[in-house]
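We close this part of the discussion by returning to an individual protein. In the encoding step, the backbone of a single protein was reduced to a row of integers, each denoting a local shape. The sequence in question and its structure tokens are set out directly beneath this paragraph.
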Amino acid sequence: MRNYLLVFLLFCLAVSCIPSKEKEAKTYSELYRPRYHFSPAKNWINDPNGLVYLQGEYHLFYQYNPFGTTWGHMSWGHAVSTDLLHWTHLPVALEEYANPATQDSTMIFSGTVVVDHANSAGFGVDAMIAIYTSNVHKNGQGIAQHQSLAYSTDKGRTWKRYANNPILDIQRKDFRDPKVFWYEATKKWVMALVVPDLFKVQFYESSNLLKWQLTGEFTGAGDTTRVWECPDLYQVKVDGTNAMKWVLSLSGAHPQGSKFVGMQYFVGEFDGNTFRKDANSEHQFLDYGKDFYAGITFNDMPDQRTIMIGWLNNWTYANQVPTHPWRGAMSLPRELRLVKVEDKIQLVSNPIQEVTSLRQKEIEILNQPGSGSFEMEIHMTDSSQLILSQGAEDKIVLWYANGQFTFDRTKSKNHSFQKDFSSVESVLIASKPSEITVRFFVDQSVIEIFVNGGAYTITDQFFLESGKMTLQTVGVVKLQRGWEIGSIW
């Protein structure tokens, strides 16, 4: 009788797994769901956080609402990858928490993860240390922001909050987004973070990640039409030279003004105490689309590449985009380089080389129905267009004319969910060449465009009525290469 009962229980267990397997098969195939860009199985995400490499794994933490598809209850979601493309979801790493003594709550805002190889903080060799902004709020209103610490000794699978938090508090309502890295020249930890409403980046140093001393500020430059957020500071070699330059990137300003958010950056020098932009250098924009924000770079990269991931959304309409049961996705990981163009040094960004491993069926001609997830490289001559459509009244358009490259999403049917979503993005190409190279990645509702080797990028969402689309050309557009891309899940 006992054996029969055991068999029965095993049968019930097997049967109970069937619905979950069917549900898993349907996940990541919903309308608008990106197939090869990271997105959560459900709920809201925004800024990438704590990008770091440790012992064969790349870690992606991110702002996450465990309870719904709009912003709120900010916690840190977590995923890991061995190739920066295929991701495994892990449990929420750091959760919003309530303080019964004061009747307030603390959300886990953006921050950094570092690997403490030398055990400077005392939590163990190779402990993962998360430094993040604690956003204290009461009755739905933010009342304070300070920096806190948590640590993990099992490769990020479980986390403990430091008993003596906060580790840095200047008694301000807005003081956030720490980016921390090891500065080898003086053997110390450096933190960059913002006083957002004062348009300041502050720099701090520490020997142990627990006690921090202010060393300098960067202010009085750049675009201040939106508050500054999510600073990042990293060193990059200038192509074709032996020179190394520092780049300070910030989120907030957009090239089309204060209605939208975007990213700006400065090229200059960091002396261990503060950043100074080059005397002949002004701020530049990292992307000319509407949907690349809060990008930060990985710590502890094993091959010295500078790799950035950004959030594919815009605060103007992020809570309204018509996706379900998730909202928000991440960009492809992009490798950043510095190049000298005429009299200035600028960032160039391109998808990491590993994306070529995702290629499937080759696309041989342009004017045919195709998949909703693909990569393509084309040459465009003056007054030419590439139209991606699901009919005459449901399309997006890439065109090049008079030195201006443009992406137009105003002709897609589904844009009424928010009045400012329908938009046209343009960028002027230096020297106005007669022909440009355009490499772009389409993924159901996302397009990442890299013009002339990544010197100019446009990243946007769009919402056509189904996943399939037809490609049509106007003028001279030459297909160089193209591939359909399958799902990473």
Remarks:
- The helical segments are 2-26.
- The chain has one helix and 36 strands.
- The chain has two domains: 43-351, 358-485.
- Residues 1-22 have pLDDT under 50 and may be disordered.
